[in-house]
What we know:
CATH architecture of the largest domain in chain A: 3-Layer(bba) Sandwich
Bound molecules: flavin-adenine dinucleotide, iron/sulfur cluster
Shape of chain A: globular
Order of helices and strands of chain B: HEEHHEEHEE
Number of helices of chain A: 17
Structural class of chain A: alpha/beta
Oligomer: heterodimer
Number of helices of chain B: 4
Strand content of chain A: 25-35%
CATH architecture of the domain at 21-80 in chain B: 2-Layer Sandwich
Shape of chain B: globular
Low-confidence stretches of chain B: none
Distance between the termini of chain B: 18 Å
CATH superfamily of the largest domain in chain A: FAD/NAD(P)-binding domain
Mean pLDDT of chain A: 93
CATH class of the domain at 21-80 in chain B: Alpha Beta
CATH topology of the domain at 21-80 in chain B: Alpha-Beta Plaits
Strand content of chain B: 15-25%
Helix content of chain A: 25-40%
Amino acid sequence: xxxxxxxxxxxxxxxxxxxxxxxxxxxxxxxxxxxxxxxxxxxxxxxxxxxxxxxxxxxxxxxxxxxxxxxxxxxxxxxxxxxxxxxxxxxxxxxxxxxxxxxxxxxxxxxxxxxxxxxxxxxxxxxxxxxxxxxxxxxxxxxxxxxxxxxxxxxxxxxxxxxxxxxxxxxxxxxxxxxxxxxxxxxxxxxxxxxxxxxxxxxxxxxxxxxxxxxxxxxxxxxxxxxxxxxxxxxxxxxxxxxxxxxxxxxxxxxxxxxxxxxxxxxxxxxxxxxxxxxxxxxxxxxxxxxxxxxxxxxxxxxxxxxxxxxxxxxxxxxxxxxxxxxxxxxxxxxxxxxxxxxxxxxxxxxxxxxxxxxxxxxxxxxxxxxxxxxxxxxxxxxxxxxxxxxxxxxxxxxxxxxxxxxxxxxxxxxxxxxxxxxxxxxxxxxx
Amino acid sequence: xxxxxxxxxxxxxxxxxxxxxxxxxxxxxxxxxxxxxxxxxxxxxxxxxxxxxxxxxxxxxxxxxxxxxxxxxxxxxxxxxxxxxxxxxxxxxx
Lengths: 432, 94
Ligand SMILES: Cc1cc2nc3c(=O)[nH]c(=O)nc-3n(C[C@H](O)[C@H](O)[C@H](O)COP(=O)(O)OP(=O)(O)OC[C@H]3O[C@@H](n4cnc5c(N)ncnc54)[C@H](O)[C@@H]3O)c2cc1C
Ligand code: SF4
Ligand code: SF4
């Protein structure tokens, strides 16, 4: 099979489908290639779909069109130890009105929908199509080959939106360094069946309101964190674990998740639930410094393939960056067609647009977050410190109490040390 | 609640390809002193037998996450690619 298009997009995730949608709407003949038997089949995430400003431009009432589970009104941050849990909660009226700030979704449904919109706009979606290699001619990317029927698809411009491992970017020579286990987190997730009524009662929600919970602690000292999100009638529970730290500690992801689910406060929230699906995926958590080359002759890289992911511990942003970068890559391809110039220097407009948008601005802003999170005290000592502080504050046992400051100081001295605490507060403040 | 990987095929759907998408050079595993893959793989696809000094890899329940690709310092893969189109893990909801 040999075919020629105006543009080829590898991967029908949020980045790829946004790029294909943008180009198809301006009349380009676009091929959108996906290895799954439908878009979204291979994809998992936490997840909270943050507000999608890039897509609201195309769908002004995005929240009425996309297949969403709940909109998130309640955000929680928890520190947990083996037997206790300290929770900070933020619940807002503002988040209960459109445009909503975030939603829980299922990727097999959401990605399917978004790719469908690209098809409606005129893109050609080819599923069951695993891209095997890029075709390079005279030093320029000229198309891709598929892992079936010796298919060759040609186009003057290719957008690599094939996710975290992006073999397309690698084969085009845009990523030379090997991945480092300290820049990647593995995420495992359990989808848990629970009725809407039980979820609403347990989390204090009504109608389509949703809650998110980011959790620090209970990872046996492995650098990482956990999350719990409410879907319409199920819960998404998972853990993101830094690979280097997991290796160092010799732990398995599923043993850690099992221990976490049995932690008493977590067990209460999950009580009566039933496991529906188990999944795993990598998260590029290295931030700004981990990106590959974003542009080459005849090629651009978008989304996770370009390591556009922000992991701060409070939030995980990826899909919004993926969609925005996809739209911008699409716009750059449209411009390249107008100029009939697909060289690296012509496509560099993509990089410029990224620099002016929140994508590279935010990645730069949180540049120090990976370094800050590379601190074992966060995972092993701080949850313990916070929870034992609370325990002492609330405990009535007939003994006279210390002042809060003295209590804190004595606890800090015994655990993290005052100097470390100050250094960590400073580094956290600088990173966030 | 508990995740039991012996029952992974009850929770998660797969359309297993006879042609494996990951092929290991087991000789490199023999001399590997880390074997990070064994613990890190979330689907427990790698099993090392100390007795036989042998690595067994089964791709059937692979979740295509990429962890082994990143943690293996020896790059012991004669092949590491995604399955052919339409094969492999198939998430329904997640
Ligand atoms: C556990 C976890 C939790 C997360 N939580 C959040 C969250 O709460 N909020 C958030 O915004 N982000 C979150 N993220 C990040 C977010 O999921 C990603 O940033 C986002 O999915 C990136 O989109 P993408 O389109 O770039 O890549 P992907 O979604 O990975 O899409 C890539 C597509 O390319 C296809 N593909 C790959 N290789 C080939 C090939 N060779 N040929 C053909 N097709 C191919 C894949 O099948 C896939 O459909 C999370 C990620 C993980 C793993
Ligand atoms: S880490 Fe690599 S070389 Fe070592 S046992 Fe695993 S696959 Fe083999
Ligand atoms: S890709 Fe992930 S699930 Fe598959 S064998 Fe490697 S580590 Fe295991």
